[in-house]
Design brief:
Helix content is 40%, strand content 15%. By secondary structure, it is an alpha/beta fold. The protein has 2 domains: 5-57 and 300-401, Alpha-Beta Complex (Aspartate Aminotransferase, domain 1), CATH 3.90.1150; 78-281, Aspartate Aminotransferase, domain 2, CATH 3.40.640.10. The longest helix has 20 residues, at 300-319.
Length: 414
């Protein structure tokens, strides 16, 4: 059989909705200057789907640094992978500053967060090693774990009794294989917004011998007294053995990094296949990231403004009896009850009649009968944006509870 033949009938879990969803619910085009208001299908919308926590995407100093670096170096330099011909003093400087900011000895730049995490797991864990990971870990962690040739155990989300149980299993197995144990969790879980219980996880090191890898994509730049992340927030950054952060959230850039001891980072430099066989980050991005990191370090008002918006949005929604789950981070999930068709009509009503753009998550990602509207507040949103959104959400919820979205499309997509 032709291997492509199956594509005619099996489009995949998400692809099965491609015909109806493409361009609106999936692969939507947000156009114009990055900001709290952008164009969607030719109409201005209030945008709550920005990975731009600290408002750096269009910060004038960032734009100036990006433009100047691009003018000087273009987008091609340096050529080749860093191990071969793509190494520069600026790449080393960014690593040095990231290590200092996160309280680690060293750091190693990664071209992309997703492939970087997969490659870290692949490089660190041999077939005799055991991985213990949180059940709600990000897809990049799950994909890295799936590639692992050795044993893996999953613990219930943020459940320390479950983690202790799985560590007991892993310890017994490690005694037989002669391998080590790597625990993987997140600083901020990007869907529900809750924090990983990092203080409780590291406390288990007193009873078990393991190393800890923390994915802090949503915590880096937003959490902690200086923005150094969830580890700083809990006061346990020094006990996180490998700290992973991305540039795609608070830094409004691209790429990622892993911060750890000099020994670990040196090992990864020479053993991470995703970096050994991939072109180095462009110089223009590296210089732009240095400016972004400088602003996060020296302008705490950016993070303070973010939290002003976060607190106003979350408190306002809770005052109207919206269910925000267990979030204690900027990630703001709003849970509603309804079917998948009702959920699509909720989104259409928000976009077409209230000019609000946000993301929706439905079954099978979350349980049947539940809808999740995910808002990402940023430092460039205003309190007026917050007030308007709460009013719109209240009106839409009333429509949902009255059954107005149940039987047909509430708004017609042209």
């Amino acid at each position: 059989m032709d291997i492509f033949e199956k594509f005619k009938t099996d489009k995949g879990n998400l692809g099965q909705y491609q015909k109806e969803a493409h361009g609106y619910f999936s692969f939507p085009k947000l156009e114009g200057e990055i900001g709290s208001r952008m164009k969607f299908r030719g109409k201005e919308v209030l945008n709550w789907s920005l990975n731009n926590y600290c408002g750096l995407a269009n910060h004038p100093e960032v734009r100036e640094a990006d433009a100047a670096a691009t003018a000087q170096y273009g987008l091609a330099y340096p050529m080749g992978a860093r191990m071969m011909s793509g190494q520069t003093s600026m790449h080393e400087e960014l690593e040095k500053q990231l290590a200092s900011f996160t309280g680690k000895q060293d750091a190693f730049l990664l071209n992309f967060g997703y492939q970087g995490m997969i490659s870290i797991i692949d490089a660190v864990c041999g077939r005799h090693d055991i991985i213990v990971y949180d059940a709600e870990a990000h897809a990049c962690i799950l994909d890295g774990v799936r590639l692992h040739m050795g044993k893996r155990f999953v613990f219930l989300h943020n459940d320390m009794d479950s983690l202790r149980k799985q560590l007991s299993h892993a310890t017994a197995l490690a005694e037989k294989t002669g391998g080590g144990i790597l625990v993987i969790t997140e600083g901020v879980f990007g869907m529900a917004g809750d924090l990983g219980k990092l203080d409780e996880v590291v406390a288990l090191k007193k009873a078990f011998d393991f190393r800890l890898l923390v994915d802090d994509a949503h915590g880096f730049g937003t959490m902690g007294a200086t923005g150094a992340g969830a580890g700083e927030h809990f006061g346990v950054q020094d006990q996180i053995d490998m700290y992973f952060g991305t540039f795609a959230k608070a830094m409004a850039g691209i790429g990622a990094f892993i911060a750890s001891s000099e020994e670990v980072c040196d090992f990864l430099r020479y053993n991470m296949r995703s970096q050994t066989f991939a072109k180095s980050l462009p110089m223009a991005m590296v210089i732009g990231l240095l400016k972004r990191l400088e602003l996060i370090r020296t302008q705490p008002q950016l993070r303070e403004q973010l939290w002003t918006v976060v607190n106003a949005l979350q408190a306002g929604l809770k005052a109207q009896n919206f269910d925000l789950g267990v979030t204690n981070s900027p990630v703001t999930p709003v849970y509603l009850s309804g079917s998948v068709p009702e959920g699509t009509n909720v989104v259409m009503d928000l976009r077409e009649n209230y000019n609000i753009f946000c993301s929706i998550v439905v079954y099978p990602v979350i349980p049947k009968g539940q809808l999740l509207l995910r808002l990402i507040p940023t430092a460039i949103h205003t309190l007026e944006d917050v007030e308007y959104t709460i009013q719109a959400f209240s009106a839409v919820r009333a429509n949902l509870e009255a059954g107005k979205y149940a039987n047909s499309k509430f708004a017609q997509i042209q």
